[in-house]
């Protein structure tokens, strides 16, 4: 894991002091709310329906046990004893007092954490593959490049008042676990024909009210030009992105209106110019960062056998573990999606957060990851330790065996918390989970990514759900639209609305009809998404509305 | 004459009125120009020799186009006064300096002590922006250049 040196620490400490001063001026009244708002947003502080919400950055989703433990302690000390892990691999606290925010940032800074640029019209926290450094299917660990970009984008003075927010993801495998092409810039680490590593840049993806899949901008940016190229792409956006309409201000609209070829021509011209400006860190800096991401010392000669004689454990292993690059190890996912009404998707109590920290220390080389599906990954678990890990999870109510199943739902906070929402997301997620909770039922359905947003801003990624749900307000009543056929994986696609919307109970019935049709029509090995793609919308529409 | 409370150059304040970009191109004796957010700073590049003052207007501090305008001019070799004007608070001061502004004239008066704190907020910087400050990556590798 990356470790701060004195420079990184000094920058984060400076930010804490700056924000403490801004908060003081706000409370004293010399800084108006209008002027304070963009400043607090760039420190992750939102004003929601009932209280302030603080979003803490988890760069590329990677945490140490010590950091995780502090996240639990903050939930106890400053919030109501829980936190909410987000679709951008961060954590947010929903019940924060403005006057506490500087102290929270100071607590975070002690463990090399912060809330820098987790909101606002700036470059946001860089996200990545939650299996990075552990999965056998990557060409290289993408996180050092994400860290290089983190430092470049932190307090970048030219890009702190962009037309709109700007999200970057970096991955290094064909299997896209980070929804890379649904970002403002998605970077995939690739090999060129000469076998060198470089960056493929995709630009202009996003969800929101105008969902778009990012087209390829440049298939190979050499590593020693990564920052210069990113700066060129951002400068063109900062100069020419629309500022007349907030809903047309994301880079996807600029790229769409200019066309990718014209946008590319402008970036190339800026890139050629910027190469004369000496803004690229030396490769030695990348090498310095990479040294922090070397593999932990895996034991060798381990067996890959797992004793699956306990049926519940066997089910959890099948559902929640993935292959690891080292023999005898597995990647284990802790589901934060308890079944039925037992919890809220992505939430964890302070005690659960500390338990996960302890388990990571005991079984995963001190390391955890936050996933964009709002779960927690222990990236490096010895297969021989899986049973002990599982027992620890069972004791903390964290052993739900439903990774990528229909009950592993992504849901935004919705109208229960958010001032933008038109409808509640959490109760709908709970009702769906309740309906499909019987293990035989969800196991029969298999992989089905279900995502719920409480308004068209799409924080719950409904456009990218195999099944998506969009909450809208219809004449003062919450109404839910059903979408089918989205995917955020390597086969990225946008979901299509089926037809007229439903009530809260009606949407659950509609989903059951859709899954029943899938079970009746599927051919061997097909996931829900595959069957939908093969047979098309018409039979689903007929079943649901017929 | 404009009141410029923050100025980081020793030559005399340019008293000439700043004209619009369009007017500037037409007036061959003009030495001062004012850029609005939607205007292309590169339109001024043919005239850098006769320019003594470029004002960059920030009608609202949340519109950051002026930051890019400043860097474009400095990167092209402009060495005259580069003055940020408009809706500027203490919390924008350090960023303006980093992008190459050497004069700042906010439309509302700023508290001098708060401004002094704000200019000094960053002990070091992560990026090379042409303002002369060595970025952190350069400090880390001063002995290892080309390593």
Descriptive report:
The complex is a heterodimer of chains A (546) and B (147). Chain A has 546 residues and is of the alpha+beta class. Chain A has four domains: 6-59 and 74-109, 2-Layer Sandwich (Alpha-Beta Plaits), CATH 3.30.70; 134-290, Sulfite Reductase Hemoprotein, domain 1 (2-Layer Sandwich); 311-395, Sulfite Reductase Hemoprotein, domain 2; 410-545, 2-Layer Sandwich (Sulfite Reductase Hemoprotein, domain 1), CATH 3.30.413. Chain A contains 17 helices and 20 strands. In chain A, helix 3 packs antiparallel against helix 11 and helix 11 (350-363) packs antiparallel against helix 12 (386-395). Chain A is globular, with a radius of gyration of 23 Å. The mean pLDDT of chain A is 96. Chain B has a single domain (6-144), classed as Rossmann fold. Chain B contains five helices and six strands; from the N terminus they run E-E-H-E-E-H-E-H-E-H-H. In chain B, helix 1 (21-26) links the parallel strand 2 (19-20) and strand 3 (32-35). The model of chain B has no long low-confidence stretch (mean pLDDT 93). The A-B interface holds A 5, 7-8, 10-11, 14, 17-18, 21-22, 25, 30-31, 35, 38-39, 121, 151-152, 154-162, 235, 238-239, 243, 273-274, 277-279, 281-282, 284-285, 288 and B 37, 40, 61-65, 67-69, 71, 75, 89, 91, 94-96, 98-99, 111, 114, 117, 121-130, 135-137, 139-141, 144-147.
